[in-house]
Write a structure and sequence with these properties.
The complex is a heterodimer of chains A (106) and B (100).
Chain A (H helix, E strand, L loop, with lengths): L5 H15 L12 H5 L4 H4 L9 H6 L9 H15 L15 H4 L3
Chain B lengths: L3 H28 L5 H12 L23 E2 L4 E2 H9 L12
Antiparallel strand pairs in B: 1-2
The chains are: A mainly alpha (106), B mainly alpha (100).
Chain lengths: 106, 100
């Protein structure tokens, strides 16, 4: 089999690139083209979790709906009840010395 | 209401979507060996200024039902246990328990 001259092979590659409209890059230099060629992944990424229709979302929709959220109502009522019995959230410490972390015995 | 990790993941997804085109442009410049090194370096510095929730690698496919991050079967977006529950309840089309 007769060896083909390298120049002829290069010419063939260049012509092939011209015909199929691809970039002629014989030395395989990194041109960063793959970052432009790749599809954008954001649009499909934000569609991963299905949209959940909550009461708060529904009330914010156009149309001026006002639906009572019973679970939220119950939660707030429970918090009030706990506060009344002195079982509420502790006061925020004003200084470092007041914090429970500091007063804890080792 | 999804748990905090799912909310964080949703935040990351929206951040990636909002910054994707700009990030790609900088990536193209930074990785292009035909451009001068100074330009590429500046593009890389710009890439480093993007926030944490703009990188696609911060996004993780979590369980749609429970928000669990491990053992998620990607075809259904469910963890293995939720997948089993739903399959047994016949909520997944074309999935049924093997028996032969």
């Amino acid at each position: 089999m007769a060896a083909v001259a390298p120049a002829r092979l290069a010419a063939l590659t260049r012509m092939r690139c011209e015909i199929f409209q691809t970039a002629y890059n014989p030395t395989s230099v990194r041109t960063g083209a793959k970052y432009l060629r790749a599809r954008l992944r954001g649009p499909s990424m934000i569609r991963y979790y299905p949209d959940e229709l909550t009461v708060a979302h529904f009330n914010r929709m156009p149309g001026g709906f006002k639906i009572q959220n019973w679970e939220e109502y119950q939660r707030l009522a429970d918090v009030e009840e706990k506060k009344r019995r002195g079982k509420g959230v502790p006061k925020k410490a004003k200084s470092k010395a007041e914090s429970r972390r500091m007063s804890r015995k080792r | 209401m999804p748990n905090a990790r799912v909310l964080r993941d949703i935040k990351a997804r929206h951040g990636v979507n909002a910054n994707e085109v700009l990030r790609r442009a900088y990536l193209y410049v930074a990785r292009n060996q035909t451009l001068p090194a100074q330009v590429r370096f500046q593009a890389q510095l710009q890439l480093n200024t993007f926030g944490r929730y703009t990188r696609p690698t911060t996004v993780k496919n979590r369980c749609i039902e429970t928000g669990r991050g491990r053992g998620v079967i990607s075809e259904f977006g469910l963890t293995r246990f939720q997948f089993r529950l739903k399959a047994l309840a016949k909520e997944l089309p074309g999935v049924h328990k093997a028996s032969w």
